[in-house]
Write a structure and sequence with these properties.
- Helix content is 0%, strand content 57%.
- By secondary structure, the protein is an all-beta fold.
- Strands 2, 4, 5, 6, 7, 10, 11 and 12 form an 8-stranded mixed β-sheet that branches.
- The protein has no helices and 12 strands.
Length: 121
């Protein structure tokens, strides 16, 4: 089993910053790519940022230049630093692991429970 727990969401004013964290727990040997997704009310879930096990990154156009994804493999944690936040960034942010190796074998497509980010004055 792979459990993902996000933290760091909250209410912030436009132009502010937040840092999201997502820690993976369970009996995990290795973790593949990790990503942050978000879902706003009435919209589909969308990719925000993605980082491979080799630390290659990819960002949605809306996140480029404002958000930074990073990971600490020893802590099995992925981060999303969000700067210059806008009201349109308001959404529930979800952490994803595409693949993890465990004593029971490969686990695919694990998701966290989500953390709310609200950008409003």
């Amino acid at each position: 089993q792979v459990q993902l727990v996000e933290s760091g969401g909250g209410l912030v004013q436009p132009g502010g910053s937040l840092r999201l964290s997502c820690a993976a727990s369970g009996s995990i040997f290795t973790i593949g790519s990790m990503g942050w997704y978000r879902q706003a009310p009435g919209k589909q879930r969308e990719l925000v940022a993605h980082i491979t096990s080799g630390a290659s990154t990819n960002y949605a156009d809306s996140a480029k230049g404002r958000f930074t994804i990073s990971r600490d493999n020893a802590k099995k944690t992925v981060y999303l630093q969000m700067n210059s936040l806008k009201p349109e960034d308001t959404a529930v942010y979800y952490c994803n692991v595409d693949r993890a190796t465990t004593p029971r074998g490969l686990v695919y497509d694990a998701w966290g429970q989500g953390t709310q980010v609200t950008v409003s004055s």
